[in-house]
## 1
Amino acid sequence: MGIIKKVRTLTATALLAASFTGASFAADNIRIAFIDPLSGPFATTGESGYRTFEYAAQTLVNDKGGVLGGRMFEIVPMDNKISPKESLIQLKRAISEGIHYIVQGNSSGVANALTDAINKHNRRNPDQRIIFLNYSAVDPALTNEKCNFWHFRFDANADIKMDALTDVIAEDQDIKKVYIIGQDYSFGKAVAAAAVKFIGAKRPDIEIVGNELHPIGKVKDFTPYATKIKSSGADAVITGNWGADMVGLGKAIVEAGVDAPIFTYYGAHDGITATFADKGVDVIRVVHEGTFNPPSAEFKAFNEGFKKVNPDKDLNQPRIIGTIQMLAKAMEAAGTDDPVAVATALEGMDFTNIYGRKVHMRASDHQIIQDVNITVHTDKNIEVDADNSGYGLLTEKTVKEAGKDLPTSCEMKRPS
Amino acid sequence: MELVVFSLLNGLVTGLLLFMLSSGLTLIFSMMGVLNFAHASFYMLGAYFAYTISGYMGFWVGLIFAPILVGVVGALIQRYGLRYVHRWGHVAELVFTFGLAFLIEEVVQFFWGKATKDYHEPELLDFPLFTLFGQSFPAYKAFMIFISIGIFIALLMMLTRTRVGLIIQAAITHPNTVANLGHNVPLVFMGVFGVGSALAGLAGVIAGPALGTFPGMAFVLGSIVFVVIVVGGLGSLAGAFVASLLIGWLQTFAIALDYSMTDLLDLLGVSFSDDHVLRDLWSLSLPQVAPILPYLLLILILIFRPTGLMGKRET
């Protein structure tokens, strides 16, 4: 008992001390709550996102003298265990600590819960509003029927990615048969539906020879699926798979001797690139906003600095850099950290990102419009590799301002 | 045609892999009466040990030493963990192995991280063995078949032709009598547990490069192994062998054949309108229900033949 009591007192003192330092910082630091998984099965992704935010805030803002005449960015990590319920608890915590900026990215389920809660909170508490910077959740609904003034998305959404990907497929006259395979849950189904829709519109002559869903995280051997893909005679495979399901599927397809490109959303980093190694060369393709190879001088330097601090991590969500930079720019433009003024400055903002490419925060739905790349897994001309493996993603094709013409159903309500 | 040939081969590979896991488990279960929930965790440990060893000394060294290491770990756990917990009965043992499975998974994540590991097949076996109808069959898969069948024959020989096998077989059905005859039954238990774990480890070593080495690999295979031993019949090595192949083929063919209930009903001349309440049920295709087929088989076996295909006593 004695020890337990002692520990309790210690914890209490520590908490008290922490809240004091927090309070004293709040006056000058601009605090940004990072609500993402930092424990549990998705902690690797959450952790690398957190490290990227930390490093970007430190080097791109704080080391350059901060914003608004010397105020620093401070990233406050809050573990949501990738659960929407836990995220709302963390949101309440952030609100009670007086934080006005929330960043989140992993899981659209969480993003949907957060955007609703923040919208409601802001309506009821006009003097303590919150901005939601979404750096990775790609559910199209977030910038369509569920859009609101407080949510900004810095990643290309699932429809934009599929639009870019099918642009490339449509150009390739050798592709006549496409096989779609994915995990059996909302995201896998959304990818399949978007693929069917866009291919049908752009190249009606392409035959969809397979549209298959497999149980998520439960398939031990993908060889039977690969056998089916091979015998279907597919010229290209599209998949939204991630994690172990991505590795298993990719390896099985290559080993079955299928000579067709595999277009993926998440076929790299977190051990996936190292596992594919020579097997995935010129086969695995990833559609994303990252421009790793050839890198711009600025990005290369940033990556090298990041690697010095985090040798085991990859900069696999580079849109985080733009999120921090654009937030800082919006604050400078607004001349204040007042959320309404910052959000107003952020919407419609034009910006040149770390790759030297123009991006635009579309005002009508708060979806960023940026170049999306189709990159290929290879070990040639790789300057910025993944998993320290020597293999990386080389840009093959770039779709300029991807999704610029995609309509949105968003009816933005701005605070009066 | 090519689908049939390759599904046969794929099913064989999966089935034989399942056999390597279930052979040890079925012996342990029938001897000690304990469902070892951590059995698949030894499979995962085998893959991770071999991954680390192969990084320094190559695949072949890992192939030999990783299973031995896993076997030693298994024997130690039996000696100092299970045997101690045994005095509180089977439930305590069950809970112990259950906790052990989680512990091993956490330990693996702690030391090796959550990301998939780049554990590769040796270059010697990294080529397509043959190409049929334009589809290639990797040499490594043939190697997996070869190893598994070798293990099956070796185990069968040991159990039926040697003195140790005789004692083990006797201990499965009449442990007390064997103890009364002066044999050290606890030592036999420890040995069987160790060898069983080593077999699971060996399965992990050869499956790691083919199926991926990641912290979820035990979970993916764990439950299906129990299906195998129940379907095959407790304590029956031959039963486990037949059940493994059966389930391997059941799963591969279910994925390969794109039939659904609607096709069956069409044959019978029955059709439902698209807005029928049960439409979702009718339109289920065989690949979609493939993952639940083994469990369906498990339930059917428990109802109609509780001893399993080749078992001698009831589960």
## 2
Amino acid sequence: MTGLRVQDLSFAYGPKQALDAVSLSVGTGVFCALLGPNGAGKSTLFSLLTRLFTTSDGKIDIAGHDLAKAPNKALARIGVVFQQQTLDLDLTVYRNLKYFAALHGISGQDAKARIMASLDRLDMAERAHEKVRALNGGHRRRTEIARALIHAPSVLLLDEPTVGLDAASRAAIVDHVHGLAADGLTVLWATHLTDEVWPPDQLVVLHQGRVLADGTAADITGRDPLRDVFLRLTGAAA
Amino acid sequence: MSPYLTALIAIVEREALRFVQQRGRFIAALVRPLVWLLVFAAGFRAALGLSITPPYQTYIQYETYIVPGLCGMIMLFNGMQSSLGLVYDREVGSMRLLLTSPLPRWWLLTCKLLGSTAISICQVYAFLIIADLYGIRWPAPGYLTVLPALILTGLMLGALGLALSSFIKQLENFAGVMNFVIFPMFFLSSALYPLWKMAESSELLHDICAANPFTHAVELIRFALHAAPNPTATAATLLAAILFLGLAIWGYDPARGMVRRKG
């Protein structure tokens, strides 16, 4: 198991329990959709997975590294796309990626080669020298995904990456990231939009800090539309 | 190249680039002390008598007296500006990028600190050049010996800004920093008046000024500009820098500090 494993993870903001004994495992090359309504605890889980928060309740393994015991090794194996945009608008796409590469200790020709390869993978190579401010929302998101791949992570975390995008950009990004999983990357994709989940995907339904369902989307939904199953699950749990 | 060095160069370069892009910030950083030097000092020259105290060996004009304090003022404002930048970074999310790097957090924060210090030093030298053109000059070696003093001061004030940024939740709260940190630190120091003057009006205020780390930073710069050592000021500034940096690292620790709070 070299992907992502979360065991009995709990976290509270003071008296408010945000995550309650959450467990999930995502294998290599699997696209896992973390589906939950707003306030389900998805962003809190992402903050714990990226070590912006820490907790002593539970365990996180990333590509075989315990995040609590070997944070630097674990963080080196993840790529992250946050819900909130984290690009410097006044820098070019290339410079944004170069800065990120440096934060991972990658420099010089190695950085250049990785940046161009990563941009190429997301069909963004021709925009490398454009300022981020000039890009549309979809291209900015692609830039962030390309950036998250520079250091060849084993696990890619995306926290509602299609928020605010038009339908075409959203579909293109969903396709791209499914393609990355097919190439062997472990993907955890947080969303509240059921149309972003494909039947063969692993689906984890999170609601009020608890995992309500975990399996392939096809198995969980049966013959019913995912939207109906999701509303039924989260409605029943509310 | 070592990953540590790679990250250092990138973070310093980014701070510098951001500074260059914000021309208004550079101009404001110079205009502020120049107004004090050209207007305030001219008015106060007659009102404030200065006795000969070290490192001065003769009577000096008030303009000469306040230049080290104004150098400190540039660094104080820059440190707080960097702090403001960090709070903004956190609000817009780009701070997350830095904090999720696999390099140790203490190193990343130190890189930020070194970046803001480098910018402060450039501003101070620009100010010293203008002061020189205005006729306020220092012994030639002073321009070189002031550099380590500026580095230490910049680190100390930058670390203070860093520590504050870890405890300020929102950008809107930053106005409080102006009122409760910058102004008291500046006015309760030897930047504008020697401490013996303060003692004449209030012993208590004098003691507060003497305990203020910014006073020691200003005195360190003052002595360094005259190529004279000041071990007490050096030790006090160094100690304050270590304390503030420790506080900042604690504040940014995901298990304890600000990042535990949502946002």
